[in-house]
Protein backbone atom coordinates (compact mmCIF):
# COMPACT_ATOMS: atom_id res chain seq x y z
CA UNK A 1 0.00 0.00 0.00
CA UNK A 2 2.55 2.54 -1.20
CA UNK A 3 1.73 6.12 -2.09
CA UNK A 4 3.51 5.55 -5.39
CA UNK A 5 2.26 2.93 -7.87
CA UNK A 6 4.28 -0.22 -8.27
CA UNK A 7 4.03 -0.31 -12.10
CA UNK A 8 6.27 2.67 -12.90
CA UNK A 9 8.10 0.63 -15.52
CA UNK A 10 5.11 0.83 -17.87
CA UNK A 11 4.83 4.61 -17.86
CA UNK A 12 5.65 7.58 -15.71
CA UNK A 13 4.27 9.15 -12.58
CA UNK A 14 3.53 12.76 -11.69
CA UNK A 15 2.89 14.08 -8.21
CA UNK A 16 0.91 17.32 -8.25
CA UNK A 17 1.12 20.18 -5.76
CA UNK A 18 -2.34 21.80 -5.87
CA UNK A 19 -1.39 24.44 -3.30
CA UNK A 20 2.23 24.73 -4.40
CA UNK A 21 4.66 24.97 -1.48
CA UNK A 22 2.03 26.55 0.80
CA UNK A 23 1.57 24.87 4.15
CA UNK A 24 -0.19 25.47 7.48
CA UNK A 25 2.80 24.09 9.39
CA UNK A 26 6.40 25.27 9.64
CA UNK A 27 8.24 21.98 10.02
CA UNK A 28 11.92 22.68 10.58
CA UNK A 29 13.06 20.16 8.01
CA UNK A 30 10.59 20.96 5.20
CA UNK A 31 12.30 21.34 1.82
CA UNK A 32 9.12 22.52 0.06
CA UNK A 33 8.15 25.62 1.99
CA UNK A 34 10.87 27.95 0.72
CA UNK A 35 10.14 27.07 -2.91
CA UNK A 36 7.69 29.98 -3.02
CA UNK A 37 10.83 32.03 -3.74
CA UNK A 38 10.89 30.46 -7.20
CA UNK A 39 7.64 32.25 -7.99
CA UNK A 40 7.91 35.69 -6.38
CA UNK A 41 5.26 37.24 -8.66
CA UNK A 42 2.61 34.58 -8.10
CA UNK A 43 -0.06 35.87 -5.72
CA UNK A 44 -2.42 32.87 -5.78
CA UNK A 45 -0.69 29.56 -4.94
CA UNK A 46 -3.74 27.35 -5.56
CA UNK A 47 -3.84 25.51 -8.88
CA UNK A 48 -6.35 27.09 -11.26
CA UNK A 49 -9.22 25.12 -12.76
CA UNK A 50 -7.62 25.48 -16.19
CA UNK A 51 -4.34 23.96 -14.97
CA UNK A 52 -6.17 21.22 -13.07
CA UNK A 53 -8.16 20.23 -16.14
CA UNK A 54 -5.10 20.33 -18.39
CA UNK A 55 -3.17 18.19 -15.93
CA UNK A 56 -5.84 15.53 -15.55
CA UNK A 57 -6.60 15.36 -19.27
CA UNK A 58 -2.95 15.20 -20.33
CA UNK A 59 -1.96 12.73 -17.63
CA UNK A 60 -4.72 10.31 -18.59
CA UNK A 61 -3.98 10.73 -22.31
CA UNK A 62 -0.27 10.10 -21.74
CA UNK A 63 -0.99 6.87 -19.89
CA UNK A 64 -3.90 5.74 -22.07
CA UNK A 65 -2.26 2.35 -22.61
CA UNK A 66 -2.74 1.51 -18.91
CA UNK A 67 -6.01 0.13 -17.50
CA UNK A 68 -5.39 1.91 -14.17
CA UNK A 69 -4.05 5.39 -13.55
CA UNK A 70 -2.58 6.70 -10.30
CA UNK A 71 -2.83 10.33 -9.25
CA UNK A 72 -0.82 11.63 -6.30
CA UNK A 73 -1.43 14.94 -4.55
CA UNK A 74 1.42 16.45 -2.60
CA UNK A 75 2.57 19.71 -1.11
CA UNK A 76 3.24 21.85 0.73
CA UNK A 77 -0.11 20.89 2.14
CA UNK A 78 -2.53 19.79 -0.61
CA UNK A 79 -5.68 20.07 1.54
CA UNK A 80 -5.19 23.87 1.48
CA UNK A 81 -6.66 23.70 -2.04
CA UNK A 82 -9.99 22.87 -0.40
CA UNK A 83 -12.56 20.11 -0.70
CA UNK A 84 -14.23 21.67 -3.72
CA UNK A 85 -10.93 21.50 -5.60
CA UNK A 86 -10.75 17.75 -5.07
CA UNK A 87 -14.42 17.27 -5.89
CA UNK A 88 -13.64 18.96 -9.20
CA UNK A 89 -10.56 16.78 -9.66
CA UNK A 90 -12.56 13.57 -9.19
CA UNK A 91 -15.24 14.81 -11.62
CA UNK A 92 -12.56 15.57 -14.23
CA UNK A 93 -10.99 12.15 -13.74
CA UNK A 94 -14.35 10.55 -14.44
CA UNK A 95 -14.89 12.82 -17.45
CA UNK A 96 -11.56 11.98 -19.09
CA UNK A 97 -10.97 8.52 -17.63
CA UNK A 98 -12.68 6.58 -20.40
CA UNK A 99 -13.74 3.86 -17.99
CA UNK A 100 -10.27 3.28 -16.58
CA UNK A 101 -9.77 2.61 -12.90
CA UNK A 102 -8.53 5.80 -11.25
CA UNK A 103 -6.57 5.79 -7.98
CA UNK A 104 -5.82 8.82 -5.82
CA UNK A 105 -3.19 9.21 -3.11
CA UNK A 106 -2.79 12.30 -0.97
CA UNK A 107 0.02 13.18 1.41
CA UNK A 108 -1.05 15.41 4.29
CA UNK A 109 -0.07 16.70 7.72
CA UNK A 110 -3.67 16.04 8.77
CA UNK A 111 -4.36 19.46 10.28
CA UNK A 112 -7.47 20.09 8.15
CA UNK A 113 -8.78 16.53 8.08
CA UNK A 114 -12.23 16.48 9.67
CA UNK A 115 -15.45 14.48 9.18
CA UNK A 116 -16.27 16.17 5.88
CA UNK A 117 -12.82 15.50 4.46
CA UNK A 118 -12.80 11.93 5.75
CA UNK A 119 -16.23 11.17 4.29
CA UNK A 120 -15.05 12.42 0.88
CA UNK A 121 -11.74 10.53 1.04
CA UNK A 122 -13.50 7.29 1.99
CA UNK A 123 -16.20 7.69 -0.67
CA UNK A 124 -13.62 8.09 -3.42
CA UNK A 125 -11.10 5.56 -2.06
CA UNK A 126 -8.22 7.97 -1.55
CA UNK A 127 -5.09 6.49 -0.02
CA UNK A 128 -3.71 8.93 2.54
CA UNK A 129 -0.12 9.36 3.62
CA UNK A 130 -0.32 10.91 7.09
CA UNK A 131 2.82 12.53 8.45
CA UNK A 132 3.42 11.38 12.02
CA UNK A 133 6.93 11.12 13.41
CA UNK A 134 6.14 9.18 16.58
CA UNK A 135 5.17 10.04 20.17
CA UNK A 136 4.33 13.65 20.98
CA UNK A 137 7.77 14.63 22.27
CA UNK A 138 9.33 13.60 18.96
CA UNK A 139 6.61 14.81 16.62
CA UNK A 140 6.37 18.26 18.19
CA UNK A 141 10.13 18.76 18.28
CA UNK A 142 10.08 19.87 14.62
CA UNK A 143 6.46 19.84 13.41
CA UNK A 144 5.19 23.21 14.65
CA UNK A 145 2.66 25.63 13.20
CA UNK A 146 3.30 29.29 12.36
CA UNK A 147 2.54 30.25 15.97
CA UNK A 148 5.11 27.80 17.30
CA UNK A 149 2.54 25.34 18.60
CA UNK A 150 2.92 21.60 18.33
CA UNK A 151 0.72 19.72 15.86
CA UNK A 152 0.70 16.26 17.45
CA UNK A 153 -2.77 16.39 19.04
CA UNK A 154 -4.35 17.68 15.82
CA UNK A 155 -2.67 14.97 13.78
CA UNK A 156 -3.88 12.28 16.17
CA UNK A 157 -7.40 13.70 15.98
CA UNK A 158 -7.23 13.46 12.19
CA UNK A 159 -5.97 9.88 12.45
CA UNK A 160 -8.91 8.85 14.63
CA UNK A 161 -11.36 10.65 12.34
CA UNK A 162 -10.02 8.78 9.32
CA UNK A 163 -10.24 5.49 11.17
CA UNK A 164 -13.84 6.22 12.05
CA UNK A 165 -14.64 6.79 8.37
CA UNK A 166 -12.59 3.77 7.21
CA UNK A 167 -10.15 5.89 5.19
CA UNK A 168 -7.13 3.92 4.01
CA UNK A 169 -3.89 5.49 5.21
CA UNK A 170 -0.17 4.94 5.61
CA UNK A 171 1.98 6.53 8.26
CA UNK A 172 4.86 8.60 6.86
CA UNK A 173 7.43 8.97 9.63
CA UNK A 174 10.42 11.23 9.16
CA UNK A 175 13.58 9.91 10.81
CA UNK A 176 15.59 12.80 12.18
CA UNK A 177 18.48 13.05 14.61
CA UNK A 178 16.16 12.77 17.61
CA UNK A 179 13.79 9.98 16.57
CA UNK A 180 16.72 7.92 15.30
CA UNK A 181 17.81 7.44 18.91
CA UNK A 182 14.58 5.63 19.84
CA UNK A 183 13.72 3.03 17.16
CA UNK A 184 11.80 0.71 19.47
CA UNK A 185 9.73 3.50 21.02
CA UNK A 186 8.90 5.07 17.68
CA UNK A 187 8.00 1.77 16.02
CA UNK A 188 5.84 0.55 18.89
CA UNK A 189 3.95 3.83 18.89
CA UNK A 190 3.34 3.83 15.13
CA UNK A 191 2.38 0.16 15.21
CA UNK A 192 -0.14 0.79 17.98
CA UNK A 193 -1.79 3.83 16.40
CA UNK A 194 -1.36 3.34 12.66
CA UNK A 195 -2.97 1.22 9.98
CA UNK A 196 -0.26 -1.41 9.70
CA UNK A 197 1.56 0.40 6.87
CA UNK A 198 4.62 2.53 7.70
CA UNK A 199 7.09 4.45 5.57
CA UNK A 200 10.28 5.73 7.18
CA UNK A 201 11.81 8.76 5.46
CA UNK A 202 15.35 9.88 6.37
CA UNK A 203 15.76 13.60 6.91
CA UNK A 204 18.91 14.76 5.14
CA UNK A 205 19.19 18.43 4.23
CA UNK A 206 22.09 20.80 3.59
CA UNK A 207 21.83 24.53 4.07
CA UNK A 208 23.78 27.70 3.44
CA UNK A 209 23.56 31.15 4.97
CA UNK A 210 22.10 33.16 2.10
CA UNK A 211 22.92 36.88 1.79
CA UNK A 212 19.89 37.42 -0.43
CA UNK A 213 16.59 36.95 1.45
CA UNK A 214 15.01 35.73 -1.80
CA UNK A 215 17.61 32.99 -2.29
CA UNK A 216 17.03 29.34 -1.45
CA UNK A 217 18.89 28.26 1.67
CA UNK A 218 18.53 24.50 1.10
CA UNK A 219 21.03 23.75 -1.63
CA UNK A 220 20.26 21.69 -4.68
CA UNK A 221 21.40 18.07 -4.31
CA UNK A 222 23.68 18.04 -7.34
CA UNK A 223 25.30 21.40 -6.66
CA UNK A 224 28.97 21.78 -5.72
CA UNK A 225 28.44 24.67 -3.34
CA UNK A 226 29.82 24.34 0.18
CA UNK A 227 26.95 23.58 2.55
CA UNK A 228 26.37 22.23 6.04
CA UNK A 229 24.17 19.30 6.99
CA UNK A 230 21.36 20.68 9.13
CA UNK A 231 21.37 19.82 12.84
CA UNK A 232 18.12 17.87 12.56
CA UNK A 233 19.40 15.64 9.75
CA UNK A 234 19.89 12.02 10.73
CA UNK A 235 23.50 10.83 10.95
CA UNK A 236 24.50 7.98 8.58
CA UNK A 237 25.28 5.17 11.02
CA UNK A 238 22.54 6.42 13.32
CA UNK A 239 20.02 5.84 10.53
CA UNK A 240 21.29 2.32 9.89
CA UNK A 241 21.03 1.43 13.55
CA UNK A 242 17.53 2.92 13.70
CA UNK A 243 16.39 0.74 10.81
CA UNK A 244 18.05 -2.31 12.35
CA UNK A 245 16.36 -1.63 15.68
CA UNK A 246 12.94 -1.40 14.05
CA UNK A 247 13.66 -4.47 11.95
CA UNK A 248 14.57 -6.56 15.00
CA UNK A 249 11.13 -5.95 16.48
CA UNK A 250 9.33 -6.42 13.19
CA UNK A 251 11.05 -9.66 12.18
CA UNK A 252 10.23 -11.27 15.53
CA UNK A 253 6.62 -10.18 15.91
CA UNK A 254 5.02 -8.46 12.93
CA UNK A 255 5.95 -10.03 9.58
CA UNK A 256 2.76 -10.32 7.57
CA UNK A 257 0.74 -8.02 9.83
CA UNK A 258 2.75 -4.78 9.73
CA UNK A 259 4.20 -3.63 6.43
CA UNK A 260 7.26 -1.38 6.47
CA UNK A 261 7.92 -0.10 2.98
CA UNK A 262 11.69 -0.24 3.22
CA UNK A 263 11.64 -3.86 4.42
CA UNK A 264 9.29 -4.89 1.60
CA UNK A 265 11.57 -3.19 -0.91
CA UNK A 266 14.63 -4.94 0.54
CA UNK A 267 12.91 -8.31 0.16
CA UNK A 268 12.25 -7.49 -3.50
CA UNK A 269 15.98 -6.98 -3.95
CA UNK A 270 16.89 -10.23 -2.17
CA UNK A 271 14.40 -11.99 -4.45
CA UNK A 272 16.26 -10.61 -7.44
CA UNK A 273 13.46 -8.25 -8.48
CA UNK A 274 13.85 -4.65 -9.54
CA UNK A 275 12.93 -2.67 -6.41
CA UNK A 276 9.67 -0.75 -6.74
CA UNK A 277 10.97 2.27 -4.82
CA UNK A 278 12.80 4.69 -7.10
CA UNK A 279 15.40 5.26 -4.36
CA UNK A 280 16.78 1.74 -4.88
CA UNK A 281 16.31 1.27 -8.61
CA UNK A 282 19.27 1.38 -10.96
CA UNK A 283 17.89 4.42 -12.77
CA UNK A 284 15.14 6.88 -11.93
CA UNK A 285 13.36 9.75 -13.67
CA UNK A 286 9.89 8.22 -13.87
CA UNK A 287 8.48 10.18 -10.91
CA UNK A 288 8.15 13.92 -11.50
CA UNK A 289 6.56 16.80 -9.63
CA UNK A 290 4.05 19.33 -10.96
CA UNK A 291 3.89 22.79 -9.42
CA UNK A 292 0.52 24.50 -9.11
CA UNK A 293 1.14 26.76 -12.12
CA UNK A 294 1.79 23.78 -14.42
CA UNK A 295 5.60 23.72 -14.25
CA UNK A 296 7.00 20.20 -14.35
CA UNK A 297 10.27 19.30 -12.58
CA UNK A 298 12.40 16.17 -12.82
CA UNK A 299 11.79 15.11 -9.21
CA UNK A 300 10.28 16.53 -6.04
CA UNK A 301 13.79 16.64 -4.54
CA UNK A 302 15.06 18.64 -7.53
CA UNK A 303 12.64 21.56 -7.75
CA UNK A 304 15.29 24.00 -8.93
CA UNK A 305 15.40 26.06 -12.14
CA UNK A 306 18.01 23.74 -13.68
CA UNK A 307 15.60 20.82 -13.49
CA UNK A 308 12.46 22.50 -14.83
CA UNK A 309 11.26 20.50 -17.84
CA UNK A 310 8.64 22.97 -19.01
CA UNK A 311 5.00 23.87 -18.46
CA UNK A 312 1.98 21.77 -19.41
CA UNK A 313 0.28 24.83 -20.95
CA UNK A 314 3.15 24.99 -23.45
CA UNK A 315 3.86 21.32 -24.15
CA UNK A 316 2.18 18.03 -23.19
CA UNK A 317 3.14 16.22 -20.00
CA UNK A 318 4.01 13.09 -21.95
CA UNK A 319 6.46 15.01 -24.14
CA UNK A 320 8.27 16.43 -21.12
CA UNK A 321 8.20 13.13 -19.21
CA UNK A 322 9.74 11.24 -22.12
CA UNK A 323 12.21 13.94 -23.12
CA UNK A 324 15.91 13.32 -23.58
CA UNK A 325 16.52 15.76 -20.75
CA UNK A 326 14.47 13.70 -18.33
CA UNK A 327 15.92 10.40 -19.51
CA UNK A 328 19.43 11.79 -18.97
CA UNK A 329 18.41 12.84 -15.47
CA UNK A 330 17.26 9.30 -14.69
CA UNK A 331 20.26 7.58 -16.28
CA UNK A 332 22.66 9.78 -14.30
CA UNK A 333 21.66 7.86 -11.18
CA UNK A 334 23.45 4.83 -12.65
CA UNK A 335 26.12 6.52 -14.72
CA UNK A 336 27.51 8.74 -11.95
CA UNK A 337 27.75 6.01 -9.35
CA UNK A 338 31.30 5.71 -7.96
CA UNK A 339 33.31 2.53 -8.55
CA UNK A 340 33.22 1.97 -4.80
CA UNK A 341 29.44 1.58 -4.97
CA UNK A 342 29.44 -0.68 -8.03
CA UNK A 343 31.78 -3.10 -6.24
CA UNK A 344 29.80 -3.08 -2.98
CA UNK A 345 28.23 -6.38 -1.91
CA UNK A 346 24.93 -4.58 -1.36
CA UNK A 347 24.86 -2.75 -4.66
CA UNK A 348 21.95 -5.00 -5.72
CA UNK A 349 19.84 -3.64 -2.85
CA UNK A 350 20.97 -0.02 -2.70
CA UNK A 351 22.09 1.12 -6.19
CA UNK A 352 23.50 4.22 -4.52
CA UNK A 353 20.08 5.18 -3.11
CA UNK A 354 18.64 8.62 -3.96
CA UNK A 355 20.81 11.11 -5.91
CA UNK A 356 19.57 13.74 -3.46
CA UNK A 357 21.89 12.24 -0.84
CA UNK A 358 25.00 11.76 -2.99
CA UNK A 359 27.11 14.65 -1.83
CA UNK A 360 30.03 12.95 -0.05
CA UNK A 361 33.17 11.29 -1.43
CA UNK A 362 34.54 7.76 -1.30
CA UNK A 363 37.70 6.72 0.50
CA UNK A 364 39.50 7.24 -2.81
CA UNK A 365 38.16 10.76 -3.11
CA UNK A 366 35.61 10.02 -5.85
CA UNK A 367 32.51 12.21 -5.67
CA UNK A 368 28.94 10.94 -5.63
CA UNK A 369 28.96 8.73 -2.54
CA UNK A 370 25.67 8.65 -0.69
CA UNK A 371 25.71 10.46 2.66
CA UNK A 372 23.80 7.53 4.20
CA UNK A 373 26.12 4.85 2.81
CA UNK A 374 27.55 3.77 6.16
CA UNK A 375 24.06 3.40 7.58
CA UNK A 376 22.73 1.37 4.68
CA UNK A 377 25.73 -0.96 4.72
CA UNK A 378 25.16 -1.54 8.44
CA UNK A 379 21.44 -2.17 7.90
CA UNK A 380 21.75 -4.46 4.89
CA UNK A 381 24.44 -6.52 6.60
CA UNK A 382 22.20 -6.81 9.65
CA UNK A 383 19.14 -8.03 7.75
CA UNK A 384 20.93 -10.29 5.26
CA UNK A 385 20.33 -13.68 6.99
CA UNK A 386 16.67 -12.89 7.59
CA UNK A 387 16.16 -11.73 4.02
CA UNK A 388 17.90 -14.85 2.76
CA UNK A 389 15.47 -16.96 4.75
CA UNK A 390 12.34 -15.05 3.66
CA UNK A 391 13.40 -15.05 0.02
CA UNK A 392 13.90 -18.80 0.18
CA UNK A 393 10.44 -19.24 1.71
CA UNK A 394 8.86 -17.23 -1.09
CA UNK A 395 10.69 -19.22 -3.76
CA UNK A 396 9.20 -22.37 -2.25
CA UNK A 397 5.73 -20.80 -2.11
CA UNK A 398 5.81 -20.54 1.66
CA UNK A 399 4.90 -17.40 3.63
CA UNK A 400 7.85 -15.18 4.58
CA UNK A 401 6.21 -14.81 7.99
CA UNK A 402 7.76 -18.21 8.75
CA UNK A 403 10.88 -16.22 9.56
CA UNK A 404 9.41 -15.42 12.98
CA UNK A 405 9.38 -19.09 13.96
CA UNK A 406 12.84 -19.56 12.53
CA UNK A 407 14.16 -16.66 14.62
CA UNK A 408 12.56 -18.10 17.75
CA UNK A 409 14.20 -21.43 17.01
CA UNK A 410 17.60 -19.78 16.60
CA UNK A 411 17.19 -17.89 19.86
CA UNK A 412 15.50 -20.57 21.91
CA UNK A 413 18.66 -21.82 23.54
CA UNK A 414 18.10 -25.32 22.16
CA UNK A 415 20.73 -27.92 23.09
CA UNK A 416 23.79 -28.07 20.88
CA UNK A 417 22.58 -31.36 19.36
CA UNK A 418 19.45 -29.58 18.12
CA UNK A 419 21.33 -26.70 16.56
CA UNK A 420 22.50 -26.76 12.93
CA UNK A 421 25.92 -28.18 12.21
CA UNK A 422 28.13 -25.12 11.64
CA UNK A 423 29.74 -26.77 8.61
CA UNK A 424 26.47 -27.80 6.93
CA UNK A 425 24.37 -25.58 4.63
CA UNK A 426 22.45 -22.90 6.49
CA UNK A 427 18.74 -23.75 6.93
CA UNK A 428 17.84 -20.30 5.56
CA UNK A 429 18.61 -21.61 2.07
CA UNK A 430 21.42 -19.18 1.26
CA UNK A 431 23.75 -21.95 0.11
CA UNK A 432 26.46 -20.89 2.57
CA UNK A 433 27.63 -22.81 5.60
CA UNK A 434 25.66 -22.06 8.76
CA UNK A 435 28.75 -20.70 10.53
CA UNK A 436 29.29 -18.21 7.69
CA UNK A 437 25.65 -17.21 7.46
CA UNK A 438 22.97 -17.12 10.18
CA UNK A 439 25.27 -18.68 12.75
CA UNK A 440 28.14 -16.25 12.33
CA UNK A 441 27.06 -14.12 15.29
CA UNK A 442 26.08 -17.01 17.58
Structure description:
The protein has 14 helices and 14 strands. By secondary structure, the protein is α/β, with parallel strands linked by helices. The strands form three sheets. It has a ten-stranded mixed sheet. A two-stranded antiparallel sheet has the order 7-8. Helix 7 runs parallel beside helix 13 (373-395). The radius of gyration is 22 Å and the shape is globular. The relative contact order is 0.11. Residues 4-9 have low confidence and may be disordered.
Brief descriptors of the model:
442 residues, alpha/beta, 10-stranded mixed sheet, two-stranded antiparallel ribbon
At a glance:
The protein has helices spanning 49-62, 83-96, 115-123, 136-142, 152-164, 183-193, 236-253, 261-270, 317-321, 324-335, 339-342, 347-350, 373-395, 403-410; strands at 13-16, 68-73, 101-108, 126-131, 168-175, 197-202, 206-207, 228-229, 259-260, 287-290, 295-297, 308-311, 360-361, 367-369. With 442 residues, the protein is α/β, with parallel strands linked by helices.
Amino acid sequence: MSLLPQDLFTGYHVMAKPAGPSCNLRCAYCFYLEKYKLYPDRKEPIMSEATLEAYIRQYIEGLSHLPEIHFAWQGGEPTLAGLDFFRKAVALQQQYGGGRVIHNALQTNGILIDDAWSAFLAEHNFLIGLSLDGPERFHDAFRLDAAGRGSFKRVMAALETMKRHNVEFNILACVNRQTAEAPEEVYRFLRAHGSGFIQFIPIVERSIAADDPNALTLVKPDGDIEATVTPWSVMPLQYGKFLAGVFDLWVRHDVGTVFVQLFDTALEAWMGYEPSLCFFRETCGDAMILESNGDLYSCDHFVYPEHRLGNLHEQPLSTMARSEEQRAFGDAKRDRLPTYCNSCQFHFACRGECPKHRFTVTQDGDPGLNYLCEGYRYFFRHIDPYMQFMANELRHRRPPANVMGWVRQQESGAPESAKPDPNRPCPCGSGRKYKKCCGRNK
